[in-house]
Amino acid sequence: MLGGFPYVSRIDLQGSRNFLAKLGIGTKSGLRIAESALEGGAGIGRITEGLLLQVSQEVDVVEPIAKFTQKLATKTGVRQVFNIGLEEWEPRESDQYDLVWNQWCLGHLNDDQLMRYLERCKQVLTPNTGLIIVKENITSGIVEVFDEQDSAVTRTDKKFLEIFQRAGLKVVKSEIQKGLPKELFPVKAYALRPQD
User: Would you list which residues are annotated within the binding site for S-adenosyl-L-methionine?
Assistant: First the structure.
């Protein structure tokens, strides 16, 4: 995930805070705190702890590996932990989120699984104001790259845009993460809302 560059986490989290601030979410004056957030593919909770618990009142977590979420489940502000894969996650009718964050996890889903997952995320967004954030590595070329060791695909920007369209989502803001080592894939953040 961090490519052997531990300082990348700090740069990444700051870039994510800045991205959310441009969307009106954050802790500074004039920005709003989200009532509820969901982190898909949370791993050990680096983003939940380093970002989402600061910009939202409550956070739910989807992560298939239970040992990764044991400590996270005890954190103040973490409401629920769903130990299930993103492709199997089914939100409840009562679930509603102002913010759904997905980072460095969607490459483990094939295109159809990703489209269906994003459709489910769309169903639980707070009407008119809810946002889905996708922050993933992208290839700088025109073809996807499959990593056999991680069993994950790094998609092109074009492929992400096609999948978002198929899922009934539109991009309201996107940007490339700055400050990362040149040895790593570019990282792009997309803010998504349902199409009109």
Answer: 41, 46, 103
Q: Which domain holds residue 35?
A: 16-194
Share of the chain above pLDDT 90, in %: 90
Threshold 0.70, pTM exceeds: yes
Domain count, the chain: 1
pLDDT of residue 140: 85
Tokens for 144?
Answer: 């996807």
Burial bucket for residue 17 (CB in 10 Å: 0-12, 13-18, 19+):
middle
Is residue 133 classed exposed, middle or buried when 0-12, 13-18 and 19+ CB atoms within 10 A define those classes?
buried
CATH number of the domain residue 103 falls in: 3.40.50.150
Low-confidence ranges of the chain (pLDDT < 70): 1-5
Binding residue ranges:
41, 46, 103
